[in-house]
């Protein structure tokens, strides 16, 4: 990672190495539309004298608070989150290692020691429902009472609505858990994505004359949408192809572990060991067990037609914009 990406240590948070900041703090999982509102305020608050700083956490705080590290699926990997934050105008991104010690800091200690003393924050920007510190005591009421005492400016950004619904990471996770990738797209402000390395599979797709690329995810912590068949856009080798994606256990051939395999329509070549990225466009159907291969092949041809129809609804430039961000 670049020198803009730091892990919380006393050495890195030496105040001599940090100029005055306009700062926002949060998990920023997904960097969705509500997060982007906060980041717009961050960018607009720069008067040329302050560094636009984002403080975020690794791993996801819920993994520690639930005392079950590693089980909290994320909407963005850490490298992806950093790129998105920088694309939204952050000059620097600090990643604090979220552990029991950090979670047990009082709100006042976190504010004074990290945000004010170490980062030299002149202005703090937070979302309306943000809180930090032990037992989440560092809420808006606490910050309002602390700003005069500690001498910093406070801006609270209100909720962001899509179709009369507030945007949150929790709602995006629920949408993906139910396969509603279209709703996830609306709340994220971009297509949800997964990236992986193409690995050797069982060869079932090739046997059915619909060869598939089997993916081993690069970022295992990312949330995998509900089992089923999806229309996706696939980036491979700098080009974007329509893709017919299956997430599931292939029950027609004897159910096993969940796999992620995609057929790149209109592609001819070898993908083994290459990294490809999937953009989720629409869920087409549930994964089901077919009585024979012929019935499955017929259904797959229909899935192919449906995928091409969905893909054709988007100009290729739409995909490129999102791919450039991630």
Residues in helix, %: 25-40%
User: What is the total tally of β strands?
Assistant: 14
Shape: elongated
The major beta sheet can be summarized as: 6 strands, parallel
Strand content of the residues, in percent?
25-35%
List its traits.
single chain, 6-stranded parallel beta sheet, 2 domains, Elongation Factor Tu (Ef-tu), domain 3, 14 strands, 11 helices, alpha/beta, Rossmann fold, 326 residues, disordered N terminus, 6-stranded antiparallel barrel
Blueprint (SSEs and pairs):
Blueprint: E1 5-7, E2 21-25, H1 33-44, E3 51-58, H2 61-65, H3 78-87, E4 92-97, H4 100-103, H5 107-118, E5 121-127, H6 140-150, E6 153-157, E7 161-162, E8 165-166, H7 169-177, H8 181-188, E9 193-199, H9 204-207, E10 213-217, E11 228-236, E12 239-248, E13 259-264, E14 275-285, H10 293-312, H11 316-325
Describe this structure in words.
This protein has 326 residues and is an alpha/beta fold. The protein folds into two domains: 161 residues, HUPs (Rossmann fold); 158 residues, Riboflavin kinase-like (Elongation Factor Tu (Ef-tu), domain 3, Beta Barrel), CATH 2.40.30. Helix content is 32%, strand content 26%. The protein contains eleven helices and 14 strands. The protein has a six-stranded parallel sheet with strand order 1-4-3-2-5-6, sandwiched between helices. A six-stranded antiparallel barrel has the order 9-10-13-12-11-14. It has a two-stranded antiparallel ribbon with strand order 7-8. The longest helix has 20 residues. The chain starts with a strand and ends with a helix. The N terminus is likely disordered.
């Amino acid at each position: 990672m670049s020198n803009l990406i730091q892990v919380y240590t006393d050495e890195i948070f030496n105040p001599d190495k940090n100029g005055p900041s306009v700062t926002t703090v949060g998990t920023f999982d997904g960097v969705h539309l509500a997060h982007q509102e906060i980041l717009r305020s961050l960018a607009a608050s720069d008067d040329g004298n302050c560094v636009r700083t984002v403080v975020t956490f690794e791993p996801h705080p819920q993994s520690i608070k639930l005392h079950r590290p590693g089980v909290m699926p994320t909407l963005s990997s850490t490298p992806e989150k950093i790129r998105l934050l920088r694309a939204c105008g952050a000059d620097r991104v600090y990643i604090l290692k979220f552990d029991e010690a950090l979670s047990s800091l009082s709100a006042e200690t976190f504010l004074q020691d990290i945000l004010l003393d170490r980062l030299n924050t002149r202005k703090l920007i937070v979302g309306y429902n943000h809180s930090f510190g032990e037992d989440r005591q560092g809420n808006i009421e606490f910050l309002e009472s602390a700003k005069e005492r500690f001498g910093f400016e406070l801006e609270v950004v209100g909720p962001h609505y899509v179709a009369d619904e507030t945007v949150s990471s929790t709602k995006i996770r629920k949408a993906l858990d139910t396969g509603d990738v279209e709703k996830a797209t609306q709340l994220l402000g971009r297509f949800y994505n997964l990236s992986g390395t193409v690995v050797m599979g069982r060869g079932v797709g090739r046997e059915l004359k619909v060869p598939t690329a089997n993916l081993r995810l690069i970022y295992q912590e990312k949330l995998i949408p509900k089992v089923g068949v999806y229309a996706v856009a696939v980036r491979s080798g700098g080009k974007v192809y329509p893709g017919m994606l299956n997430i599931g256990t292939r029950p027609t051939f004897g159910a096993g572990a969940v796999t992620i395999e995609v057929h790149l329509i209109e592609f001819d070549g070898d993908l083994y060991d290459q990294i490809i990225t999937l953009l989720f466009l629409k869920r087409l159907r549930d994964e089901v067990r077919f009585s024979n291969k012929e019935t499955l092949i017929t259904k797959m041809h229909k899935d192919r037609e449906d995928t091409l129809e969905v893909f054709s609804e988007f100009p290729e430039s739409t995909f490129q914009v999102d791919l450039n961000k991630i």
